Amino acid sequence: MGMGTFLRIVMIAVGIFLMMAVISSLTKRKMTEFFCVMWGVIAVDIIVIGIMMRTEKLDSEISGIEVLILLMISFCILGGMYLMSSKISVLLRKNTELSIQTSLLNLKVEKMERQIEELMEKIDRSDEQ
Questions:
Q1: Residue 3: Cβ within 10 Å count
Q2: Tens of pLDDT, residues 78-120
Q3: Does residue 128 carry a pLDDT above 90?
Q4: How far apart are CA 55 and CA 49, in angstroms?
Q5: How far is 80 from 90, CA to CA, in rounded Å?
Q6: For the chain, what is the domain count?
């Protein structure tokens, strides 16, 4: 088995693994839908490129060290981007929750202000009598 074939198999396996990770993140609500769709498209692209890749030229032109370096760099970039999008998703969910809580607090404050105004009016009326 040449290096091109090895690279092809690894790309297909990485694409399948990435697709499984995306589905898992979506079901566990670790990542927002937008990021899951984006990573799903990336996973399908990696699988399609792995399937369509021609390995004849790669076997003669690329060495094992070059493939390993390429794979290591690719894993680092993909892993970093995946973790960043996961963390951004968590922050987006927290931001949404905070905005909801802020709205609820604002409603409570407005209600309390109205109640204070009503009480002040009652106090003023009682002082006048």
A1: 20
A2: 999 999 999 999 999 999 999 999 999 999 999 999 999 999 9
A3: no
A4: 12
A5: 15
A6: 1
Answer for the pair 101, 40: CB distance below 8 angstroms, yes or no: no
* 72-to-2, 44, 67, 105, 121 alpha-carbon distances in Å: 18, 20, 9, 49, 73
Residue position matching structure tokens 């984006």: 38
Domain holding 75, by residue range, is 3-128
The secondary structure of 67-100 as a DSSP string is: HHHHHHHHHHHHHHHHHHHHHHHHHHHHHHHHHH
SS3 20: helix
- Rg from Cα positions in the chain: 28
DSSP 55: -
The pTM of the full predicted model, rounded to 2 decimals, is 0.74
Count the helix, strand and coil residues of the chain and give each as a percent rounded to the nearest 5: 90, 0, 10
